[in-house]
Amino acid sequence: MDAEPIIVVRVGLDDFDVGAEIDALQAGDPAVGAVASFVGYCRDEGGRLAALELEHYPGMAEAEIGRVAREAVARWPLYAITVIHRAGRLRPGERIVLVAVSSSHRAAAFSACDYVMDFLKTRAPFWKKEHLAEGVDGDWVKAKAEDDQRAGRWGDKEG
Amino acid sequence: MSREPVVIRYFAWVRERIGLAEERLALPATVVTAGDLVGWLAERGEAYAYAFEAPGTIRVAVDQLHIEQDEPLGAAREIALFPPMTGG
Description:
The structure holds 2 protein chains of 2 kinds.
Chain A: E1 6-12, H1 18-26, E2 34-41, E3 49-56, H2 60-75, E4 78-86, E5 88-90, E6 95-103, H3 106-123, E7 126-132, E8 137-140, H4 145-152
Parallel strand pairs in A: 1-4
Antiparallel strand pairs in A: 2-6, 3-5, 3-7, 4-6, 7-8
Chain B: E1 6-10, H1 12-18, E2 22-25, H2 34-42, H3 46-51, E3 59-62, E4 65-67, E5 78-82
Parallel strand pairs in B: 1-5
Antiparallel strand pairs in B: 1-2, 3-4, 3-5
């Protein structure tokens, strides 16, 4: 792990290719023994939702995810982290977020992926608004206390 | 002590309730902390009072960094106010 870990953060409207992103993390490097990834999708909430509208704070969203990724890199021996978060209107079944992490071994990769996802949820400036199947605007999604508790597990000052 | 106007940005339901995505405001010297700002904004009219009716839930970022409500705003160029985040 002599080289500086590579952190890639992308926020935008475009979908992403999960397989290609995971392959890029391995990138033909024989030192990489593990890539752990998380993909979050838009749910239909039992048929209630037509779409989610994702609003974000451009600039800060990328910066905050970058800060979380750098904390993960400081905490575990990682080669690379890729985080992609989409914005705009997403329908049920569409991908919202990817976190993928490469390391020599699985424990660091799993933990770092979990950590980045926990703090992305509580610190990255994104907000979801529901659009209901009946064609009307729904409410803004409420933050869950459970997400704060999950982030608190890591014992960080931010948690 | 006069201060330069700063850009105040609003997101999600804070933006919808106020009816503005951003505005430039000269903050009075009495507004020192992020919490002071939330309290001062809440006095600006009905829409603001509605947006900030539960001031404790409001999150504040100064120059794109989160701060707590008891922390000073400092020499901010851009201040954002928004609800708890729901990304991921």
